[in-house]
Design a protein that fits this description.
Gamma-B Crystallin, domain 1; 1 helix; globular; single chain
């Protein structure tokens, strides 16, 4: 093999290594630039309460309804999608119910929120674990 061929092969190999290292450094730099998990929203729902928001968003931390006591609470004139957040403590649950007496319900665990279409919903029931 001639010196010229060896030099060309070595130059090609070095160029390949340089491109690979540039790509690797570029990727590792980009991976470090990705932010951590976004912070939780300011829900505006006090600890121990159940909150309903006027739409599917957190509404800037301004719930339209706040419930504190256990038992069935009737819901009137609420239409379309609303976020419901169970911010009760001690594992207390809520039921989102079609019946006005707390029957025919869906369950939300403590610490969780869910968007519901409240048009057919007539009550929520706060209950102990």
């Amino acid at each position: 093999m001639s010196v010229k061929r060896i030099r060309n092969a070595a130059t090609g190999l070095l160029a390949t290594v340089a491109l690979t290292m540039t790509a690797f450094v570029g990727l590792s730099g980009a991976a470090q630039a990705i932010p951590a998990t976004p912070p939780a929203p300011d829900t505006g729902c006090p600890s121990g309460a159940v909150c309903i928001y006027p739409d599917e968003s957190w509404n800037g931390g301004n719930p339209s309804h706040v419930f504190w006591s256990y038992g069935v609470h009737r819901i009137y004139n609420q239409y379309g999608d609303h976020r419901i957040f169970n911010n009760q403590t001690g594992g207390a649950a809520i039921d989102v119910c079609y019946g006005s007496d707390g029957t025919d319900c869906a369950f939300i665990s403590a610490g969780f929120s869910q968007v519901f279409n409240l048009t057919p919903i007539n009550s929520i029931s706060l209950r102990t674990p």
